[in-house]
Amino acid sequence: MTLEKTPKPTESELEILQVLWQQGPSTVRVVHEELSKNKEVGYTTTLKLMQIMAEKEMLEVDKSSRSHIYHPALEEEKTQQQLLGRFLDAAFRGSASKLVMQALGNSKTSKAELDEIRNLLDKLEGGSK
Amino acid sequence: MTLEKTPKPTESELEILQVLWQQGPSTVRVVHEELSKNKEVGYTTTLKLMQIMAEKEMLEVDKSSRSHIYHPALEEEKTQQQLLGRFLDAAFRGSASKLVMQALGNSKTSKAELDEIRNLLDKLEGGSK
DNA sequence: TTCATTTTACGAAACCATTCGTATATACTT
DNA sequence: AAGTATATACGAATGGTTTCGTAAAATGAA
């Protein structure tokens, strides 16, 4: 059985992952331009970061054309789940309900989304009746 | 109007804050012993961290007795709110409902807690009925 | 082919959190 | 008072991320 790593992307790495999850496989330039919308950053900085991420096996690279094409080696949902687990413990001492209450209380969430959540609640409570 | 900082405790700093939030004002020794339950760490390391946190004004210190007594300068809920906001953006691109669904789906939350959440949903949706 | 543009490669610097050794101060014990 | 234990103070080493300058390679244009 292969040793399962638990990748822990840094903040900058996560920004890059988000771009790639959203846009699909992309060149450094595309990622860099996307990041530049939110903050000042040098091209080679982005490049270096993505190269390091590839070394760490968080990204995979297609080097067949001159402009290498990167894509995430991590699934978005799995990664979110891991990050969430850590964050839950670190910030809310593991209390999921506290986290959920604060998340709902402090963000304008659409009625449709609230309904979706309510459905999930029904399913969860139904099972334990 | 005073300039409002947005403190960004690191992981280690957050661990210390959690102890202080939970136990109330404490000496370095008490905090250190609490931390030691979960991981190996030297006493002076904890001391130094807490001193740095005091410099950053995340903690306040009562130096009137030999063993200084530290307490958080930050409110637990406010801090959680800020951390949650950042985390939400970084990990879930701002989608609170996605975060909530994953948090609920992947943690055993008691019926009482689920009901509490349902109540909140009622209140939130009630307004738009 | 020559020149300009774009890309990757490499390495070093800057920065920051974390760790801890050692020194010094304070209080307690006998 | 002398010795022991416990506390704080200080400074430096470590380790990791982030940043970017510079060079080399690949491509495209004139």
Automatic annotation (TrEMBL), chains A, B:
Entry keyword annotation includes Iron: no
Keywords, alphabetical: DNA-binding, Transcription, Transcription regulation
Record InterPro entries: BlaI_family, WH-like_DNA-bd_sf, WH_DNA-bd_sf
Pfam family, one: Penicillinase_R
SUPFAM superfamilies in UniProt: Winged helix' DNA-binding domain (SSF46785)
Gene3D superfamilies: Penicillinase repressor domain, Winged helix-like DNA-binding domain superfamily/Winged helix DNA-binding domain
Family per record: Belongs to the BlaI transcriptional regulatory family.
Name of the molecule in the record: BlaI/MecI/CopY family transcriptional regulator
Organism lineage: Bacteria, Pseudomonadati, Bacteroidota, Cytophagia, Cytophagales
